[in-house]
Amino acid sequence: MQLIAETQRTQSSRRGLIFSLRRLCGLCVSAVNTIARNSQAKSKPRARRLATVLLLIVTLTPNVTLLAQPNPARLTTQNEAFLIDLEQRSFRYFWEQADPQTGLILDRAHTDGTPPGAHEASYHIASSAATGFGLTAVCIAAKNGWLARAEARARVRTTLRFFAERAFETHGWFYHWIDQKTGERRWQSEVSSIDTALLLTGVLTARQCFRDDREIVRLATKIYERVDFAWMLAGHPTLLSHGWRPETGFLKSRWDNYSEHLVLQLLAIGSPTHAITPRAWLAWQRTRITYAGYTYLSGAPPLFIHQYSHAYVDFRNLRENWYPFTDYFANSIAATRAHRQFCIDLAREFPGYNENVWGISASDSAKGYVAWGGPPRDPAIDGTVVPYASAGSLMFTPDISLPALHALHDQFGATIYGHYGFADAFNPTTGWVDKDVIGIDLGITLLSAENLRTGNVWRWFMANRELPRALHLVGLRPYRSQYRLR
User: Fold this and answer.
1) CA 360-365-370 angle, 5° bins
2) pLDDT at 325
3) Residue 363 CB contacts under 8 Å (≥ 6 apart), including other chains
4) Distance in angstroms (rounded) separating the CA atoms of residues 305 and 300
5) Could you give the CA distance from residue 98 to residue 101 in angstroms, rounded to a whole number?
C-alpha cells in the first residue's frame, strides 16, 4: 500500500508539473503572438517590453524545472527484489556500525558484521563521509519501511546534535577520521573539504526527509550555514583546498580538475552565509579522454569520481550553457561504459574479467588499499574486481550494472555476498576475497540503487533550495536529453 500511495503521489505531482508547464507555454505563445501583432503595428516599444517579460518568465523558471524528476526506470520483479535485498544489507551496516551516543559510523567493518578489534588499526575509527552516507541510509530505510520512522528520527537527531554541538570543527569544517566514541581526531587526519561535503549531503538530505521536525531542520541548517567555504579557498580566488591541518596549515592540493568535488562546489556556491563566487565552477581544468569510442571528462583513475556527486545532485537533463555543453549525467554514463570495456579488454591479462564481471575503483586489495581505476591502465591492477564500481553506476547504466551484480551474486555466492552485501573487493583470478566492507563503498551502492528504484535521494537533496540555485548560478540549464534510464 505504501508503494502504491507513493506512486500515486508521484504521478499527481508529475501531472501538476505538466499542467503548469503547459500553462506557461500557453502564456509564452500568447506573448509571442502579441509581440508579432505589435511589431506589425509598428509599436516597437510595447513589443520590446513584452519580449522582456517573456524573457524573464523563461529565465526565472529553472528553479522549478531543476526539481528532482520522477525516475523513469522500469524494473522487473526479479530485479526489484534483488536491489531491495542489496539495499537492506547495505543499510544494515550504517545502522549496526553507528555509535548510539554520537551517531558516528565506522570507516570499515568485517564482512561477518563484527567491528574491527582493539588489535586492528581501524579500531573505533569513524569517517565523516561514511556518517553522511549513514544519515541518508536512515532516510532510505524509514521511507521504505525497513526502520520505524521514530527510530530513524532519533538517530538523525543524535547525529546532527553531535556535529552541531560537540564535534571539533574549524570554520565549520570537520576532520576526515575521528574516534567513534569521542569525536577526537584520529590518524593525524586533515580537516577535509570533500569529507565534510559528503557529511553535508547527508545532513541536508535528512533536513528534507524530516522537514516536519523543527529540531532536525534547525540543527541541519546550523551545520551547513556555519561552514565558511571562502576560508577553504586558502587565499585562492576560486579553487578550494583539499583540507587543512593544525600543524602545517592548508594542504597544497586543490580541486583543480574533474573529480568527485562537484557537490562540494555546488554547496559552496549555493551557501546562504559563506558562498564562493560562481566563477569557481569555471576555474578547474576539464580534461577529456576517449576510450572505446566514448569521450568524457575524467580526472583521477577511480570510477567513484563519476558517482559520488551524482548520488545527491540530480544532473539529469541538465547541461552547461556554453560549448561543449557538458551534460554531467551523460558524462558518467560514458565513463561507466568505457570503464566496462576497459575491464573486458584487460581479460587478455586477467581472465577473471568479462562482460559481466568488471569494475575497478579505489578499494582494498591483497596488497592493501589502492586508489586504482581506469582507463588509462593503472600498473597496480592485478585482476581485482570491486563490486561497488558497477553498483555505484546503477543510476546511470542499469542495463550493464544490473547484469554485472547478478553475475557476481550468482557466480560467487556467499563467498563475496554476505551480511552487508558484497565484500569490498575480490580477485576471481587468484581467489583472494576481502574480509572487510568499507562504509563509503556501501554508501554509494545503497544510494545509487535507491535512485534507480525510486529517485528518493535526488528528490530529498534537490528540495534544498540552495542546490537548484547553485546549479543555475554555474550555468547548468534544463534541456531534453537523449539519455533515458532503462
Assistant:
1) 65
2) 97
3) 369, 370, 372, 384, 386, 388, 424, 425, 434, 438, 441
4) 7
5) 9
| Integer Cα distance of 421 and 432 in angstroms | 17
Question: What's the count of helices (H) and strands (E) in the chain, helices before strands?
Answer: 16, 13
Report CA 294 to chain centroid distance, whole Å.
22
Backbone angles phi, psi at 397, to 5 degrees: -130, 65
For 332-377, how does the pLDDT look when each residue is reduced to its tens digit (9 = 90+)? 999 999 999 999 999 999 999 999 999 999 999 999 999 999 999 9
pLDDT at 404: 98
Sign of CA dihedral 386, 391, 397, 402: positive
Across residues 240-265, what is the average pLDDT?
A: 98
Q: Is 285 left (phi over 0), alpha (psi -120 to 50) or beta?
A: beta
Helix (H) or strand (E) holding 109: strand 108-110
Query: What distance lies between CA 30 and its chain's CA centroid?
Result: 41
Residue 483: the pLDDT is 59
Q: pTM for the whole thing?
A: 0.86
Cα within 13 Å of Cα(200), Cβ side: 33
- pLDDT score at 46: 53
Residue 244 φ then ψ, to 5°: -150, 145
- Residue whose cell numbers read 552487508: 420
The β-bridge relationship of strands 125-127 and 177-179 is antiparallel
pLDDT tens per residue across span 211-240: 999 999 999 999 999 999 999 999 999 999
Distance CA 404, CA 356 (A): 4
Residue with cell 530485479: 79
Instruction: Count Cβ atoms below 10 Å from residue 403 Cβ, excluding itself.
Output: 14
pLDDT at 2 over 60: no
- For 107, residues 6+ apart whose C-beta sits below 8 A from its C-beta are 122, 125, 126, 127, 130, 177, 438, 439
pLDDT tens string 29-75: 344 344 444 444 444 455 445 444 443 443 344 333 344 444 446 89
Q: Single out the residue of 275, 233, 239 nearest to residue 255, CA to CA.
A: 239
Q: How far apart are CA 213 and CA 316, in angstroms?
A: 30
Alpha-carbon gap, residue 29 to 50, rounded angstroms: 12
Q: What was the pLDDT predicted at 79?
A: 97
* N-term to C-term CA, the chain: 25
**H/E run at residue 478:** strand 476-478
- In angstroms, the CA 120 to CA 403 distance is 36
Rounded Cα distance between 350 and 366, Å, is: 15
